[in-house]
Amino acid sequence: MKIAVIGAGNLGIPLALKLAKSGNSVVLQSRDTAKLSQVIDSLRLATPTSVQIRELGGDLSDYQLILLTVPDTEITTLAAKISPLVSAGSIIAHCSGAHDSSNLRGHRSANDELWYCSLHPLNTFPNPHAGWSTLAASSHATALICEGDTEALSKIEPVFSAAGFTYQQISKEAKPLYHAASVMVCNYLAVLMHAGL
Predict the structure, then answer these.
(1) What does the alpha-carbon distance between residue 191 and residue 197 come to, in Å, rounded to a whole number?
(2) SS3 28
(3) Sheet holding 166-169: strands in order across?
(4) Among 6, 107, 144, 147, which residue's Cβ finds the most Cβ atoms within 10 Å?
């Protein structure tokens, strides 16, 4: 699959590398390509990466999946900005754990055929190095919690399964409960340990 990852941060960098390593054609867009190149070099990849690095913006019509790995507050604005640059039949997705795919919609007419979904890797990505150390393993088995258009999810599943993710679909209505549960399990464990000590 031809994939554009927009947002070269703690999740975007390791996710782009993993998707490229599993055979996809990936471009990673960033505001600061020089800094991004330094970060990727510092990961000391065992094999050279096939990820192309580009400045933010430009035509996205060649890409089947446009993956937004930006902060939650930027998703809606960025989706509005890129929608005119995407070809009919493409998928626009974000990686927010808290929001469903509805904040991607409504930027083009009903006659334009785009598919939308949210794809949340249920893991911790505190920095690109930690994220890559997790995803680099072929057996990382990170849960990928997905919701959105059926057409999008059917195309996404084999791509992420081939990259070692464990795919699970939930409903749009379940997304707030999923996020709350994730916060409790991940963050409250540290609180419980501290209280116990």
Answers:
(1) 10
(2) strand
(3) 52-55, 25-30, 2-6, 65-68, 91-94, 115-122, 143-148, 166-169
(4) 6
What are the tens digits of pLDDT across the range 1-20?
999 999 999 999 999 999 99
**Amino acid at site 105:** R
Backbone CA torsion sign across 98, 100, 106, 108? positive
pTM, two decimal places? 0.91
Contacts of residue 108, defined as CB under 8 A and 6 or more positions apart, other chains included, come to 83, 84, 114
Taking the CA atoms of 45, 92, 113 and 163 in sequence, report the sign of the dihedral they define: positive
Compute the Cα dihedral for 112, 148, 29, 24 and give only its sign.
negative
> DSSP string covering 69-92, please?
-S-GGGHHHHHHHHGGGS-TT-EE
